[in-house]
């Protein structure tokens, strides 16, 4: 029916494949439906006018002729029948005219970018697969002109496309696993500009960048250019990832209203077709580095249309607008430093609060995109992000993903978590660095989690670096714990390729787990480096102080950490720890306080395992499969390992034995400070099982 009406209107089946579509749109509005002369007895779908019955006679009776005085002789039944047929024909003709007119107007509106928003009626016009496909070839041709490999050309031709009502502020998606591009039905309510001549850019004007074109024309300036979003998603097919840099790249995210962004020559030249897996989608870009709120943050759509006097979108504006936009939202960041500076306690100032709906924040890479709080010397002096993800009884209400960013220099003196505070949400970190974030107490309550505090909820991801964060006291007697990371209230952590280095706290220099409320926390680290962290008291690298919690480390090293005054230079455990192919090397427990005149009461240079008996829980359990304990030092007992009343199993294999050697106990070096168990010290009715384990190469006591 649609194609018939378009033929009646004089149009073609494809607005993109005919020169006739370059004519002015006004011609189409003014065009009238032209009808050919019809058979005398056929009026559209009306029934033909029937002749009177002849009842089988050879001749047919006809209506009487007019009398001599020209007075007509009426056959009432025949006239009524004819009149009815005529009225029906006129009605049918009017209906078709009305449908044709409605289709013409609706088609033109869609072409001009009017949002295809479903209405309450059943015949609401939406962006369709047919209209979408009219632009996909033109978009692919733009990419072909940049120079593509044969594999990329083949990949472009194999894409499937679909129009769908996508969730939240998502314009389009590409699924690398199914090779499917999906486009939102109405540009998340903003409205598409559907170019009827997509092979040229005559509707746009040049900008400061040769590949960025703009228009303020009616029907374009307030819409999202559909061609640009299609090209963005096709870039994923060619092997390009989302990129916040440069801002004028077609891969940077959702374009500004009335803006067309084109691929540049060679842009996909180094990419590999088919290398992008999973789902990727276009999103809003925060292109303002200063901490300013002067745009309309009532939702993302309004922010795109009203950015404020500065003409850009700040990170804070994007987060505020995302909080006011339901569903999944995404913010792309450019290469550069986003400086937080607005001081206060509401959402428009202070730390960036994420409250409503799932959110993804993607940077140009952790070595290129920085979110900076200014540190202790700055005016901001607040944490960077606070995630309000639920409660103990209702956790995981939102999921927040950070990728390709460095989060640095948060400074907090009144709460926990200077980099992050996660309240029962789900946080995903991929290619993220947490560096130089500090919580500092000064005589009030304890403050914990310099880099990250997760109060329940879950934290997961890969390629994560937690470096040089601190939980420290500035006077007073506070016990600030978890320099790099602090967990409490039954949280879950699962990291792959994680580095926890150079962090500092009273306890748990790198990582600290507190007792939970129910079943304890669960931490899984795969390919982990826990290195050069310092605790003033105990647990230089890692302190699992929770009797209910379990830590599993699959591959990696616990190396060169230090506890300055008590136990567990590399690791302190009160719960359960499983180590698979982990090397515990070069860690130290000192005894710097010297309160008893000797430096000999700090134990477990590499690992300290605490009591296993409790009224409710069984704790102090260690299972070590493979790996080694080498070169660790304790000023007291147990240079390599001290098992104080716990249960420890260390087991290698016949071909890969666990080596415990070159560890030292009583390291202060005086006769009075000499202690026992250079390699391993077992005490307080502890149970230790060793299989395929060697003590060799000068482990001393």
Assign the structural class, choosing from mainly alpha, mainly beta, alpha/beta, alpha+beta, or little secondary structure.
alpha/beta
Low-confidence stretches: 1-74, 99-125
Distance between the termini: 93 Å
Question: What is the tally of helical segments?
Answer: 8
Q: What does the average pLDDT come to?
A: 81
Short summary of the structure?
The protein is α/β, with parallel strands linked by helices and 701 residues long. It has eight helices and 47 strands. It is elongated and about 120 Å long.
Provide the fold topology:
Elements: H1 2-8, H2 25-30, H3 76-111, H4 129-144, H5 150-157, E1 160-164, E2 172-175, E3 180-184, E4 192-193, E5 205-206, E6 212-214, E7 224-225, H6 226-237, E8 259-261, E9 279-281, E10 284-286, H7 300-305, H8 315-323, E11 329-333, E12 336-339, E13 352-354, E14 359-362, E15 369-372, E16 385-388, E17 399-408, E18 411-412, E19 420-423, E20 426-435, E21 438-441, E22 452-455, E23 458-467, E24 470-473, E25 485-488, E26 492-501, E27 504-507, E28 511-513, E29 522-531, E30 534-538, E31 542-544, E32 550-559, E33 562-563, E34 571-573, E35 576-585, E36 588-589, E37 607-609, E38 621-625, E39 628-630, E40 633-634, E41 641-644, E42 647-651, E43 658-661, E44 664-665, E45 681-683, E46 687-691, E47 693-696
Parallel strand pairs: 1-3, 4-7, 10-11, 11-14, 12-15, 13-16, 14-17, 15-17, 16-19, 17-20, 18-21, 19-22, 20-23, 21-24, 22-25, 23-26, 24-27, 25-28, 26-29, 27-30, 28-31, 29-32, 30-33, 31-34, 32-35, 33-36, 34-37, 35-38, 35-39, 36-40, 37-41, 38-42, 39-43, 40-44, 41-45, 42-46, 43-47
Antiparallel strand pairs: 2-3, 2-9, 5-6, 6-8
């Amino acid at each position: 029916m649609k194609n018939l009406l378009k033929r009646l209107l004089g149009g073609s089946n494809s607005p993109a494949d005919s020169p006739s579509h370059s004519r002015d749109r006004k011609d189409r509005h003014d065009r009238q439906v032209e009808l050919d002369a019809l058979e005398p007895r056929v009026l559209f779908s009306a029934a033909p006018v029937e002749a009177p019955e002849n009842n089988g006679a050879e001749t047919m009776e006809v209506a009487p002729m007019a009398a001599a005085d020209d007075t007509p002789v009426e056959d009432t039944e025949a006239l009524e029948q004819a009149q009815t047929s005529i009225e029906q024909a006129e009605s049918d003709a009017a209906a078709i005219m009305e449908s044709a007119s409605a289709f013409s107007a609706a088609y033109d509106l869609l072409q001009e970018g009017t949002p295809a928003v479903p209405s309450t009626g059943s015949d609401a016009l939406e962006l369709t697969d047919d209209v979408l496909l009219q632009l996909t070839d033109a978009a692919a041709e733009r990419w072909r002109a940049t120079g593509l490999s044969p594999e990329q050309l083949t990949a472009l031709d194999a894409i499937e496309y679909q129009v769908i009502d996508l969730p939240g502020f998502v314009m389009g998606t590409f699924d690398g696993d199914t090779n499917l591009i999906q486009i939102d039905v109405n540009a998340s309510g903003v409205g598409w500009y559907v170019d009827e001549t997509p092979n040229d850019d005559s509707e746009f004007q040049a900008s400061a960048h040769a590949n960025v074109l703009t228009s303020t024309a009616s029907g374009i300036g307030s819409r999202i250019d559909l061609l640009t979003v299609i090209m963005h998603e096709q870039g994923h097919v060619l092997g390009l990832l989302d990129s916040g840099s440069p801002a004028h790249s077609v891969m940077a995210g959702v374009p500004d209203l009335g803006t067309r962004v084109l691929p540049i020559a060679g842009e996909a030249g180094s990419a590999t077709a088919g290398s992008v897996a999973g789902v990727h989608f276009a999103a809003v870009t925060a292109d303002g580095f200063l901490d300013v709120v002067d745009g309309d943050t009532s939702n993302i759509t309004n922010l795109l249309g009203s950015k404020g006097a500065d003409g850009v979108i700040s990170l804070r504006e994007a987060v505020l607008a995302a909080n006011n936009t339901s569903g999944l939202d995404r913010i792309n960041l450019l290469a550069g430093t986003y400086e937080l500076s607005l001081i206060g306690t509401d959402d428009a100032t202070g730390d960036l609060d994420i409250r409503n709906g799932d959110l993804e924040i993607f940077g140009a890479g952790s070595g290129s995109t920085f979110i900076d709080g200014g540190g202790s010397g700055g005016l901001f002096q607040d944490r960077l992000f606070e995630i309000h993800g639920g409660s103990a009884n209702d956790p995981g209400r939102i999921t927040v993903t950070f990728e390709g960013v460095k989060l640095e220099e948060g400074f907090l003196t009144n709460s926990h978590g200077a980099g992050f505070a996660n309240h029962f949400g789900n946080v995903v970190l991929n290619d993220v660095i947490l560096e130089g974030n500090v919580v500092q107490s000064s005589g009030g309550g304890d403050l914990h989690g310099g880099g990250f505090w997760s109060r329940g909820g879950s934290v997961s991801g890969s390629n994560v670096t937690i470096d040089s964060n601190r939980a420290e006291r500035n006077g007073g007697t506070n016990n600030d714990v978890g320099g790099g990371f602090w967990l409490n209230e039954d949280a879950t952590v699962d990291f792959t390729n994680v580095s926890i280095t150079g962090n500092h706290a009273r306890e748990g220099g790198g990582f600290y787990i507190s007792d939970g409320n129910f079943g304890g926390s669960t931490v899984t680290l795969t390919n982990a480096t826990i290195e050069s962290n310092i605790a003033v008291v105990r647990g230089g690298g890692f302190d699992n102080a929770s009797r209910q919690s379990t830590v599993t480390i699959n591959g990696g090293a616990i190396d060169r950490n230090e506890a300055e005054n008590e136990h567990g230079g590399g690791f302190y455990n009160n719960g359960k720890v499983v180590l698979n192919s982990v090397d515990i090397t070069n860690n130290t427990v000192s005894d710097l306080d010297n309160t008893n005149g000797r430096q000999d009461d700090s134990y477990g240079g590499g690992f300290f395992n605490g009591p296993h008996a409790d009224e409710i829980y069984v704790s102090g359990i260690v299972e070590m499969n493979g790996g080694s304990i080498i070169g660790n030092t304790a000023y007291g007992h147990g240079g390599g390992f001290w098992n104080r009343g716990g249960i420890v199993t260390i087991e290698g294999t016949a071909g890969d034995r666990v080596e415990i050697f070159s560890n030292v106990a009583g390291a202060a070096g005086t006769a009075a400070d000499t202690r026992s168990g250079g390699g391993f010290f077992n005490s307080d009715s502890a149970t230790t099982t060793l299989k395929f384990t060697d003590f060799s190469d000068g482990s001393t006591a």
